Please model this.
Amino acid sequence: MKYFTTEIKVDLQPKLEKPAVLCAYIPDNSPEVDMERLHPAVIILPGGGYEFTSDRENEAIALKFISEGICAFVLKYHVAPVRFPAALCEALLAVRYVREHGSEYHIDTDNISLCGFSAGGHLAASAGVHWKNSYILGLLGGEPDEMKPNRLILSYPVVTSGEYAHRGSFENLLGDGMASKEWLEFNSLEKQVTEDTPQSFIWHTYEDNAVPVQNAMLFASALIAHKIPVELHIYRRGGHGLSMGSHLVCGDRKYGENHISSGWIDKAIRFIYD
Model:
């Protein structure tokens, strides 16, 4: 496995003091298997309410994906006090970076997924609905197809700015922009789905009292309305931020004491390869 980091720089006003960081976990091809094998890629967007990026939704997730032959990247994107659209631009540029380096890393450039958790799920879905938006393209330049994710994997995602919103995420994302109906609407993603939104895998828990399960259902319903394939799993128990639901990410769990939702990642891996 190769591990390295690279910088994702966005030219915005006001200028960002530091770039976002993309951490890469690249499987090595073997002559015993196939030296020319192309691997799917997944870019992981940790949650944290646009206030921080969670360690629990970071390397452990990447290592699970790479163990199944998937090139994994973790994007440490900008959060508050940096506001919209910095993180969205960084996520789209991360997709462009992975696609541009496809031949170097043996990546199938037609199979690049964004995998987001909570507010990172909002970021992933934002990239999925806005990858060809004229305002965003005006900031980034280039061709929209360079930045299009092929699949979305959304774990207990923040989606809506409406009745079931996680207000803290939108306050951190928009700051004073919370007063703008236009930007709230732009970031209420169930209203932004089009026929160009990627197929999606979504999971949530019924008991989530931080980000209501209706967020996942609203996005899934919008996808279905636009005839976009979606796989939705709602687990009847469990709170917010479960990540993999194992001892690796939950300090109060012993080895083997996995949450009932822990199988989501195996389902997501199958979704990537399907």
User: Anything to note?
Assistant: The first helix runs from residue 59 to 67. The first strand starts at residue 2 and ends at 8.
